[in-house]
Design a protein that fits this description.
By secondary structure, this protein is of the alpha/beta class. It contains 8 helices and 13 strands. Helices cover 32% and strands 19% of the residues.
């Protein structure tokens, strides 16, 4: 289900929630939020079934701030520490986000989002990049649990690659590394043939139309379940992973998130595995696990919540 499709409130009013078990780790006041170009998610709990999902209309700053405030107060009437995972470049020290163009025209420059939210919510607010929040969610509750060296690959509008090296997060721009010189044009970058130009959500309909001129869809979700096309995409993704392995960094596990990965993993992952297996003899290490996230579309909001909980209650268990 996409964010747009699921833009209904699914929150359960707190007074109707079942009593918390004594063994459950409580973190009153901690709230995680994830905003994107199509939706807003918020939670005050680690349970995926308590994630609130709302719509978010890209545009000016103020309506988006309104949506975030509404989301926070829906899941926690008395917030104490809020962490917001957002697209764009985040300066955590200044509490600003820059070039979050997915959120609308008003977000192309620098927005002091943390201060705007602090003044409305009257509590601590920190920002993090959405990929950072997703990696935190995957490490703590997802497919990278107990993994010190791994990678998180996001397949949605673009292609994102975040590495985990010796337990330390390393965001990268490897989604824009060149897969094929002279390949198709990238969008917004001065190069051709990068992985995103083949596998990004914006690029997939263009690539599909090159093979099937009768296709007129503009969205990746409109592409049929064409086994040959998606398997070839999986093999291209396998090239990216082989490249990561050949960098010499140990990779115990690789996790895939994002709307394209969620919707097509049954075709993509066999292609990835076949491609990686072809190179296995050449590799010093081969990931033991290549998996789709078990956290679905909630991975970033759960990661943001865990970060908020850590900041508010530093001695709680994971
Ligand atoms: Zn590119």
């Amino acid at each position: 289900m996409t964010d747009a499709q699921s833009a209904e409130t699914v929150a359960v009013p707190s007074e109707t929630l079942p009593p918390l078990a004594k063994t459950r780790v409580q973190a009153p006041g901690a709230v995680g939020v994830h905003i994107s170009g199509v939706g807003c998610r918020a939670t005050a709990s680690i349970s995926p079934d308590r994630v609130w999902i709302g719509s978010l209309t890209p545009g000016d700053v103020e309506p988006v701030v309104d949506s975030i405030v509404n989301a926070v107060l829906t899941v926690e009437r008395h917030p104490k520490f809020v962490v917001v995972g957002t697209p764009g470049h985040v300066n955590g020290d200044l509490g600003t986000v820059t070039a979050a163009a997915n959120l609308g025209q008003g977000w192309r420059g620098t927005v002091a989002l943390a201060e705007l939210l602090r003044s409305r919510l009257d509590c601590e607010v920190e920002l993090c990049n959405d990929a950072e929040a997703a990696l935190e969610g995957e490490r703590r509750r997802g497919a990278l649990v107990a993994c010190n060296d791994g990678a998180l690959i996001t397949l949605s509008h673009g292609v994102g690659v975040a590495l985990l090296h010796d337990g330390i997060q390393q965001p990268t721009e490897l989604g824009h590394s060149v897969s094929q010189f002279g390949g198709p044009e990238c969008r917004g970058r001065p190069h051709r043939g990068c992985y995103e130009s083949y596998l990004g959500g914006w690029a997939l309909p263009i690539r599909y139309r090159e093979r099937h001129p009768e296709f007129h869809g503009a969205m990746a979700r409109e592409i049929p379940d064409d086994h040959d096309f998606w398997t070839e995409c999986g093999r291209r993704l396998g090239d990216l992973i082989v490249g990561l392995c050949l960098l010499g960094q140990p990779l115990e596990a690789i996790s895939f998130i994002g709307s394209v990965a969620q919707a097509r993993h049954q075709y993509l992952l066999p292609g990835v595995r076949a491609r990686v297996d072809e190179e296995a003899a050449l590799l010093a290490t081969r990931p033991r696990s290549l998996r789709i996230t078990p956290l679905g579309e909630d991975v970033s909001v759960l990661g943001a919540f865990l970060m908020a909980r850590d900041l508010l209650h530093p001695f709680l268990a994971a």
